[in-house]
């Protein structure tokens, strides 16, 4: 992949901007190496690549679970490389996080699980009730507030996790392998749910190695390999690409995606 083609999507004023970002761990492990890319407000983007490629690391830098080693990362105008520790909680409230393992409190009701971010944010009782009910409605679990997570199926539990992630009305939703434990039909339902939030204006970024699902949704895909960004494909925009840039989809598919099937 030529750098010029990757740069095609780059916009320095975008909502999320990675500039030559590196993430290293002690022992010399390079989780991410010289990542430059940008994501616009309201986009839906998949991160894909083999195990160990750096997908979770990229999400963790955005959620500030980890700090950038070198380079610059800006989200909604905030320079995360310089963000003081005391501003991290406020920043995190602008994000929704979804995990493969939903990380629900199993001894608390569905309602209480979803309410948790609002309780932490100090919202009033009445506001919390209204927002939690709306969040549960939006994931199709309007009637299940009183249930315990243990009484629900894996797909329903993941929906509760998603309701908790969006209850704060985040600008950006980050999901790390959200369908990793689900069968294909449930995975598709969960992806449709993400799409519906995206259609309402939320920026959605999903790490997934489920290539079948990723292809089916026909959204922009960032492909990572050994910590490097090797491809950036947007099916919706490929026709607008200048002629002098390589077409990512020539030869029947995305370079990084095709490699998975060899
Ligand atoms: N806390 C850590 N300490 C040391 N090395 C780490 C740490 N977290 C990740 N790594 C290393 O960074 C690289 C990228 O890991 P990452 O978890 O981002 O990959 P991934 O693409 O999410 O993989 P998977 O598909 O298995 O989830 C790997 O080599 C991993 O071993
Ligand atoms: Mg991962």
Brief rundown of the structure:
The chain is α/β, with parallel strands linked by helices and 262 residues long.
Core attributes:
single chain, 262 residues, alpha/beta, Rossmann fold, 6-stranded mixed beta sheet, 4-stranded antiparallel beta sheet, globular, disordered C terminus, binds adenosine-5'-triphosphate, binds magnesium ion
CATH superfamily of the domain at 1-84 and 174-179 and 205-262: P-loop containing nucleotide triphosphate hydrolases
Tally the beta strands: 10
Number of helices: 9
CATH class of the domain at 1-84 and 174-179 and 205-262: Alpha Beta
The Cα radius of gyration reads 19 Å
Spans where pLDDT lies below 50 across 5 or more residues: 239-256, 258-262
**Ligands and ions found:** adenosine-5'-triphosphate, magnesium ion
For the biggest sheet, the summary is: 6 strands, mixed
Widest β-sheet, arrangement of strands? 6-7-8-3-9-10
Average per-residue pLDDT, rounded, comes to: 87
- Any idea what the CATH architecture of the domain at 1-84 and 174-179 and 205-262 is? 3-Layer(aba) Sandwich
Percentage beta strand: 15-25%
Please write the string of helix (H) and strand (E) elements: HEEEHEEHEHHHEHEHEEH
CATH fold-level label of the domain at 1-84 and 174-179 and 205-262: Rossmann fold
């Amino acid at each position: 992949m030529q750098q010029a083609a990757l740069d095609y999507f780059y916009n320095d004023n975008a909502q999320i901007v990675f500039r030559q970002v590196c993430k290293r761990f002690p022992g010399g492990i390079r989780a991410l190496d010289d990542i430059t890319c940008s994501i616009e407000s309201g986009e839906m983007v998949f991160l894909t690549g083999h195990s160990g490629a750096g997908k979770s690391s990229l999400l963790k830098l955005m959620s500030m679970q980890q700090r950038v080693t070198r380079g610059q990362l800006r989200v909604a105008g905030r320079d995360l490389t310089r963000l003081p520790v005391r501003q991290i909680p406020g920043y995190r409230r602008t994000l929704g996080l979804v995990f493969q393992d939903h990380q629900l409190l199993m001894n608390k009701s569905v309602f209480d699980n979803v309410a948790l971010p609002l309780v932490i944010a100090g919202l009033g009782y009445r506001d919390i009730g209204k927002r939690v009910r709306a969040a549960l409605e939006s994931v199709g679990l309007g009637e299940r507030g009183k249930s315990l997570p243990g009484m629900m199926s894996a797909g329903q539990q993941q929906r509760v996790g998603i309701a908790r992630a969006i209850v704060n009305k985040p600008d950006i939703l980050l999901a790390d392998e959200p369908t990793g434990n689900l069968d294909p039909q449930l995975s598709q339902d969960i992806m449709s749910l993400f799409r519906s939030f995206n259609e309402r204006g939320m920026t959605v970024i999903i790490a997934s190695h489920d290539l079948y699902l990723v292809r089916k949704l026909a959204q922009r895909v960032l492909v990572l390999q050994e910590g490097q960004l090797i491809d950036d494909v947007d099916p919706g925009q490929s026709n607008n690409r200048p002629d002098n840039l390589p077409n990512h989809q020539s030869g029947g598919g995305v370079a990084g995606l095709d490699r998975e099937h060899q």
